């Protein structure tokens, strides 16, 4: 799945983009790895942050915004029984989303975000409950978070933490 055209020099630090996203893309490029993103609560913010970095197109395969629960099953292959019994805000859902986007988009790394940004609880989970799924050629992990703040703050912090957590594993 590695992109032979992924060159660390192709990711440029031109004052554009996000510093954490740039650092992650540099780490991926050093490994020769590509990334794909499956987003629920972040609704596209994570992949948008990644592609704000010049040169990202050589490393970012794409993103799937599966905001509706049924799309997590239909687009990403998340077990529908799991979704029916535990809901979309669940660590195993995050794990399956990351694996599914990695497989379906042909990336080396899959990362997912699912959780509750608010204003109301969902699937029996409190506002600020977040799960980040990460699937690499070497590991599969879920990072649980309990975040505070407004809806926008929860979403922004999820993106920041996802970038840091993936970078820590590349």
Automatic annotation (TrEMBL):
- CinA C-terminal domain mapped to chain residues: 20-168
What domain of life?
Answer: Bacteria
Report the InterPro entries cross-referenced here.
CinA-like_C, CinA_C
Q: Where is the signal peptide?
A: none
SUPFAM superfamilies, sorted: CinA-like
Q: Name one Pfam family in it.
A: CinA
Q: Which Gene3D superfamilies match?
A: CinA-like
NCBIfam families assigned: PncC_domain (TIGR00199)
What's the protein name? CinA family protein
What does UniProt list as this organism's lineage? Bacteria, Bacillati, Actinomycetota, Actinomycetes, Micrococcales
């Amino acid at each position: 799945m590695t992109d032979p055209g992924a060159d660390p020099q192709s990711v440029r630090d031109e004052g554009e983009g996000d510093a954490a996203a740039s650092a992650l893309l540099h780490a991926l490029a050093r490994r020769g790895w590509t990334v794909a993103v499956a987003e629920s609560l972040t609704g596209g913010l994570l992949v948008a942050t990644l592609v704000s970095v010049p040169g990202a197109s050589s490393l970012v395969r794409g993103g799937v915004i599966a905001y509706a629960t049924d799309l997590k099953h239909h687009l990403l292959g998340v077990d529908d029984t799991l979704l029916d019994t535990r809901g979309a805000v669940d660590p195993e859902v995050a794990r399956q989303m990351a694996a599914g986007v990695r497989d379906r988009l042909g990336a080396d790394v899959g990362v997912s975000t699912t959780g509750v940004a608010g204003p109301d609880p969902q699937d029996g989970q409190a506002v600020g409950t977040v799960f980040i799924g990460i699937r690499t050629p070497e590991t599969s992990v879920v990072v649980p978070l309990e975040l505070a703040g407004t809806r926008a703050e929860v979403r922004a912090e999820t993106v920041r933490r996802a970038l840091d957590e993936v970078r820590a594993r590349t």
